[in-house]
Amino acid sequence: MLIETTGLTKAFGGLTAVDDVDVGIEEGKITAIIGPNGAGKSTLFNVISGFHSSTNGKITFNGEDITKKKAFNIAKLGIARTFQTTNLFEQATVMDNVVIGHRLRTKSGVFDALLQTPRLKREERACREKAEEVLTFVGLQKESDRLVSDISQEAKKRAAFAVALATDPKIVFLDEPAAGVNPEETGGLVALMRKMVNNGLTVCLIEHKMQMIMELADHIVVLNQGKKIAEGTPEEIQNNDTVIQAYLGGGEEAADAH
Length: 258
Ligand SMILES: Nc1ncnc2c1ncn2[C@@H]1O[C@H](COP(=O)(O)OP(=O)(O)OP(=O)(O)O)[C@@H](O)[C@H]1O
Hints:
With 258 residues, the protein is an alpha/beta fold. 41% of the residues lie in helices and 23% in strands.
């Protein structure tokens, strides 16, 4: 397993958002985390990527214990993520957004910037080249000089993927990659996620669009009220009584999650 959690728990005061969860994310595969609203999916992402500290349990990456590492160091190991609401700079170009993402990987400090050292110039060039490469990969090469505020929702999702990919990750965590995108446009995002995996990446995503998940995922983990209630192939999950019960019993939003 590329990432493995054992007994992972995150409590916010009296509320246990992630409750004793064991999850394995297999290298080179697409793993989906599903579950009704408030099930703990985003919290699980936040704890694995170091944005929140865990209350209990262990997280390993390639066998290495990363439980106590901070977000920045986890990112440097090759674990990237996107957010539910794409946190792009709307008034900057697509290219500049990606270049900023790539700076995480480079070494120039404030002195290099002040002195305009050769290292800084070299790194700036490398950043732009990397940004061009990932923008081409996600199909945004023609949009690279446009302001983020001027591109479509689907293109913003692609740009968020590009920002994540610019850090040369081994695994990307995508939080609702198709949220807010027209049903006709989700096909392109599905193809892009498959392309990532075909290029050696591992993908883990949270998504409410069930049809899309059933087509896309190799492995599905189902959370409900912080607990893992099932995992398996799309077919196994579709036929799992506990899962069906959780969704039907989860109120309007859950029943609406198609
Ligand atoms: N920073 C926080 N402080 C306090 N409670 C939180 C915090 N983040 C999440 N929670 C709570 O933890 C529970 C799980 O939330 P989480 O956002 O992880 O669920 P989710 O499965 O991602 O839901 P959704 O599908 O609606 O995004 C919810 O009850 C939520 O209110």
